Amino acid sequence: MPLTPAIEEPQIHESAQGPRVTPAASRTAQTPRPVPGPRPAAVPRPGRPGPVRPGPPAQRAAQATAGPVPAAPAAPSVSAAVPQLQVIPASAEGALDAAEEAVDLLLDTGRAPGDVLVITTGDPHPWAAHELSFGEGRYWAQHDAKDDVFYADAAQVQRATGRPVVVFAANGGPAGAIAEALPVALSKAGALLIVCGDVAQINSVLGTGV
What we know:
- The protein is α/β, with parallel strands linked by helices.
- It has 6 helices and 5 strands; from the N terminus they run αβαβααββαβα.
- It has helices at 57-66, 95-108, 126-132, 136-145, 177-188, 199-206, and strands at 84-89, 116-120, 150-153, 163-169, 189-197.
- Strands 1-5-4-2-3 form a 5-stranded parallel β-sheet.
- Strand 4 (163-169), helix 5 (177-188) and strand 5 form a beta-alpha-beta unit.
- It starts with 56 loop residues before the first helix and ends with a helix.
- The relative contact order is 0.17.
Protein backbone atom coordinates (compact mmCIF):
# COMPACT_ATOMS: atom_id res chain seq x y z
CA MET A 1 0.00 0.00 0.00
CA PRO A 2 1.54 3.38 -1.03
CA LEU A 3 2.44 5.72 1.80
CA THR A 4 0.82 9.14 1.89
CA PRO A 5 3.55 11.77 1.96
CA ALA A 6 3.62 13.84 5.13
CA ILE A 7 2.13 17.28 4.78
CA GLU A 8 4.54 19.95 5.87
CA GLU A 9 3.09 22.78 7.87
CA PRO A 10 3.75 26.15 6.24
CA GLN A 11 6.43 28.10 8.01
CA ILE A 12 5.79 31.72 8.78
CA HIS A 13 8.86 33.74 8.16
CA GLU A 14 9.69 36.53 10.55
CA SER A 15 9.35 39.10 7.78
CA ALA A 16 5.67 38.13 7.32
CA GLN A 17 4.75 38.52 10.94
CA GLY A 18 4.39 42.29 10.74
CA PRO A 19 6.27 44.89 12.69
CA ARG A 20 7.03 44.21 16.29
CA VAL A 21 5.50 46.59 18.78
CA THR A 22 7.72 47.54 21.66
CA PRO A 23 5.77 48.48 24.77
CA ALA A 24 6.08 52.17 25.51
CA ALA A 25 8.15 53.04 28.51
CA SER A 26 6.03 53.78 31.51
CA ARG A 27 5.79 57.43 32.45
CA THR A 28 4.94 58.77 35.83
CA ALA A 29 1.77 60.84 35.72
CA GLN A 30 2.42 64.46 36.62
CA THR A 31 0.38 66.20 39.24
CA PRO A 32 -2.00 68.70 37.61
CA ARG A 33 -0.97 72.27 38.22
CA PRO A 34 -3.30 75.24 38.65
CA VAL A 35 -4.01 77.00 35.39
CA PRO A 36 -3.25 80.71 35.45
CA GLY A 37 -6.08 82.93 34.24
CA PRO A 38 -6.79 84.33 30.80
CA ARG A 39 -4.06 85.76 28.63
CA PRO A 40 -4.16 87.80 25.44
CA ALA A 41 -3.89 86.02 22.10
CA ALA A 42 -0.32 85.15 21.18
CA VAL A 43 1.30 87.62 18.78
CA PRO A 44 3.02 85.94 15.79
CA ARG A 45 6.76 86.38 15.70
CA PRO A 46 8.05 88.79 13.01
CA GLY A 47 8.64 86.99 9.75
CA ARG A 48 6.88 83.85 10.98
CA PRO A 49 3.14 84.27 10.48
CA GLY A 50 1.03 81.51 11.88
CA PRO A 51 -0.42 78.93 9.49
CA VAL A 52 -3.87 79.57 8.06
CA ARG A 53 -6.00 76.45 8.20
CA PRO A 54 -8.54 76.18 5.34
CA GLY A 55 -12.11 75.29 6.22
CA PRO A 56 -14.04 72.21 5.04
CA PRO A 57 -14.81 72.01 1.27
CA ALA A 58 -18.50 72.79 1.83
CA GLN A 59 -17.62 75.86 3.85
CA ARG A 60 -15.14 77.06 1.24
CA ALA A 61 -17.74 76.66 -1.48
CA ALA A 62 -20.29 78.64 0.52
CA GLN A 63 -17.77 81.40 1.12
CA ALA A 64 -16.99 81.59 -2.58
CA THR A 65 -20.65 82.24 -3.42
CA ALA A 66 -21.86 84.14 -0.38
CA GLY A 67 -18.77 86.26 0.31
CA PRO A 68 -16.71 86.42 3.47
CA VAL A 69 -18.23 85.17 6.70
CA PRO A 70 -18.55 87.90 9.37
CA ALA A 71 -16.02 87.50 12.14
CA ALA A 72 -17.28 86.35 15.54
CA PRO A 73 -17.40 89.08 18.18
CA ALA A 74 -14.26 89.27 20.28
CA ALA A 75 -14.43 88.06 23.86
CA PRO A 76 -14.51 90.86 26.39
CA SER A 77 -11.07 91.66 27.76
CA VAL A 78 -10.25 91.73 31.45
CA SER A 79 -10.22 95.27 32.74
CA ALA A 80 -6.77 96.45 33.72
CA ALA A 81 -8.30 98.25 36.71
CA VAL A 82 -9.68 94.98 38.14
CA PRO A 83 -7.06 92.23 37.83
CA GLN A 84 -8.19 88.66 38.24
CA LEU A 85 -7.14 87.01 41.51
CA GLN A 86 -6.03 83.40 41.80
CA VAL A 87 -4.89 81.82 45.06
CA ILE A 88 -2.70 78.72 45.19
CA PRO A 89 -2.72 77.21 48.72
CA ALA A 90 0.81 76.71 50.00
CA SER A 91 2.76 76.75 53.23
CA ALA A 92 5.39 79.39 53.84
CA GLU A 93 8.04 76.78 53.06
CA GLY A 94 6.37 75.74 49.80
CA ALA A 95 5.15 79.12 48.56
CA LEU A 96 8.23 79.86 46.44
CA ASP A 97 8.09 76.44 44.77
CA ALA A 98 4.39 76.98 44.04
CA ALA A 99 5.21 80.37 42.54
CA GLU A 100 7.85 78.77 40.31
CA GLU A 101 5.30 76.22 39.12
CA ALA A 102 2.90 79.04 38.29
CA VAL A 103 5.58 80.92 36.34
CA ASP A 104 6.49 77.78 34.38
CA LEU A 105 2.86 77.24 33.46
CA LEU A 106 2.42 80.86 32.44
CA LEU A 107 5.37 80.62 30.08
CA ASP A 108 4.24 77.21 28.77
CA THR A 109 0.84 78.66 27.87
CA GLY A 110 2.30 81.55 25.91
CA ARG A 111 2.90 84.40 28.32
CA ALA A 112 5.93 86.49 27.44
CA PRO A 113 8.61 86.37 30.14
CA GLY A 114 8.59 90.16 30.31
CA ASP A 115 4.91 90.07 31.33
CA VAL A 116 5.66 88.44 34.69
CA LEU A 117 6.80 89.96 37.99
CA VAL A 118 7.45 87.66 40.98
CA ILE A 119 7.42 89.09 44.51
CA THR A 120 8.67 87.25 47.60
CA THR A 121 8.11 88.18 51.25
CA GLY A 122 10.76 85.96 52.82
CA ASP A 123 13.99 84.62 51.35
CA PRO A 124 14.65 86.18 47.94
CA HIS A 125 14.48 84.09 44.82
CA PRO A 126 17.93 82.60 43.99
CA TRP A 127 18.00 84.56 40.72
CA ALA A 128 17.50 87.86 42.54
CA ALA A 129 20.17 87.03 45.10
CA HIS A 130 22.60 86.13 42.33
CA GLU A 131 21.98 89.27 40.27
CA LEU A 132 22.16 91.56 43.28
CA SER A 133 25.61 90.19 44.01
CA PHE A 134 26.77 92.08 40.92
CA GLY A 135 25.27 95.34 42.12
CA GLU A 136 21.89 97.03 42.11
CA GLY A 137 22.64 98.84 38.85
CA ARG A 138 22.76 95.62 36.85
CA TYR A 139 19.81 94.18 38.76
CA TRP A 140 17.46 97.10 38.08
CA ALA A 141 18.68 97.44 34.49
CA GLN A 142 17.21 94.00 33.85
CA HIS A 143 13.98 95.13 35.49
CA ASP A 144 13.78 98.15 33.17
CA ALA A 145 14.53 96.06 30.08
CA LYS A 146 11.34 94.02 30.67
CA ASP A 147 12.53 91.15 28.50
CA ASP A 148 12.47 88.44 31.17
CA VAL A 149 10.72 87.38 34.36
CA PHE A 150 11.79 89.72 37.17
CA TYR A 151 12.07 88.68 40.82
CA ALA A 152 11.85 91.21 43.66
CA ASP A 153 11.31 91.00 47.40
CA ALA A 154 8.62 92.77 49.37
CA ALA A 155 10.95 95.62 50.32
CA GLN A 156 11.46 96.41 46.62
CA VAL A 157 7.84 96.10 45.51
CA GLN A 158 7.27 99.85 45.57
CA ARG A 159 10.12 100.45 43.13
CA ALA A 160 9.08 97.68 40.73
CA THR A 161 6.81 98.80 37.92
CA GLY A 162 3.57 97.02 37.11
CA ARG A 163 3.31 94.10 34.73
CA PRO A 164 0.36 92.20 33.26
CA VAL A 165 0.88 89.27 35.66
CA VAL A 166 2.20 89.42 39.22
CA VAL A 167 3.01 86.22 41.13
CA PHE A 168 3.16 86.76 44.90
CA ALA A 169 4.97 84.18 47.04
CA ALA A 170 4.05 84.53 50.73
CA ASN A 171 7.15 82.64 51.86
CA GLY A 172 7.51 84.06 55.35
CA GLY A 173 9.52 87.13 56.21
CA PRO A 174 9.10 89.84 58.85
CA ALA A 175 5.79 90.18 60.66
CA GLY A 176 3.43 92.29 58.63
CA ALA A 177 5.38 91.84 55.37
CA ILE A 178 2.49 90.06 53.64
CA ALA A 179 -0.11 92.57 54.86
CA GLU A 180 2.00 95.48 53.60
CA ALA A 181 3.19 94.04 50.28
CA LEU A 182 0.13 92.15 49.05
CA PRO A 183 -2.12 95.20 48.40
CA VAL A 184 0.77 96.84 46.56
CA ALA A 185 1.26 93.70 44.47
CA LEU A 186 -2.41 93.81 43.57
CA SER A 187 -2.01 97.38 42.35
CA LYS A 188 0.96 96.31 40.19
CA ALA A 189 -0.96 93.52 38.42
CA GLY A 190 -2.47 94.57 35.12
CA ALA A 191 -4.57 91.48 34.37
CA LEU A 192 -3.80 88.71 36.86
CA LEU A 193 -2.50 88.34 40.41
CA ILE A 194 -1.49 84.84 41.52
CA VAL A 195 -0.91 84.51 45.27
CA CYS A 196 0.84 81.45 46.69
CA GLY A 197 0.39 81.11 50.44
CA ASP A 198 -1.97 80.55 53.33
CA VAL A 199 -5.52 81.08 52.07
CA ALA A 200 -6.93 82.33 55.38
CA GLN A 201 -4.17 84.90 55.70
CA ILE A 202 -4.62 86.05 52.11
CA ASN A 203 -8.36 86.45 52.63
CA SER A 204 -7.82 88.50 55.77
CA VAL A 205 -5.44 90.86 53.96
CA LEU A 206 -7.43 91.32 50.77
CA GLY A 207 -10.89 90.95 52.32
CA THR A 208 -11.88 88.28 49.80
CA GLY A 209 -13.55 84.92 50.12
CA VAL A 210 -11.54 82.90 47.61
